[in-house]
Amino acid sequence: MQTYDLRRSSKSRLKFHGEIIAEDSTPEVSGRYTKYTIYRTANGLVVAIMDVTLWENERNSYAAEFVADITDARQYLETHGGAKSGRGLSAVEDDLLDEAEQALDQLLAA
């Protein structure tokens, strides 16, 4: 496993050992996009969300949190991802969770 040190906008950095099991991003629209990453750690998962702006006077925002499992990852995305707009999970977020779940299933089967 690799060591990661993730930036978070309103919290201290999140440092952990893990591996990436899923990542995806939204298409760029009006100079902005969102990148999602799910990591597997020895004690669960880390969900990271990076809202990227290409605009000169705007700043990227960063969120990342430890969660216990895929169910908690879904709940985290519902409150911190695109679903916070009240429209539910985006197709990208659903695909991300599916990819993570498949990766975990493969790791358990090995």
How would you describe this structure to a colleague?
With 110 residues, the chain is α+β, with helices and mostly antiparallel strands. It has one domain. It has helices spanning 70-80, 91-109, and strands spanning 2-6, 14-25, 32-41, 44-53, 61-67. The protein has a 5-stranded antiparallel beta sheet. α1 runs antiparallel to α2. The longest helix is centred in the last third of the chain and has 19 residues, at 91-109. The relative contact order is 0.19.
Describe this structure in a few short sentences.
By secondary structure, the protein is an alpha+beta fold. Helices cover 27% and strands 40% of the residues.
Adjacency order of strands in the biggest sheet: 1-2-3-4-5
- By DSSP (H or I, 4+ residues per run), the number of helices equals 2
Main beta sheet, described?
A: 5 strands, antiparallel
Would you tell me the structural class of the helices and strands? alpha+beta
The helix content is 25-40%
- Summed up, the domain count is 1
Structure summary, number of beta strands: 5
Would you list the SSEs in sequence order as H and E?
A: EEEEEHH
The amount of beta strand, in percent, is: 35-45%
Name the overall outline: globular
- Spans of at least 5 consecutive residues with low confidence: none
* Separation, N- and C-terminal Cα atoms: 17 Å
Computed CA radius of gyration, to the nearest angstrom: 14 Å
Mean pLDDT: 92
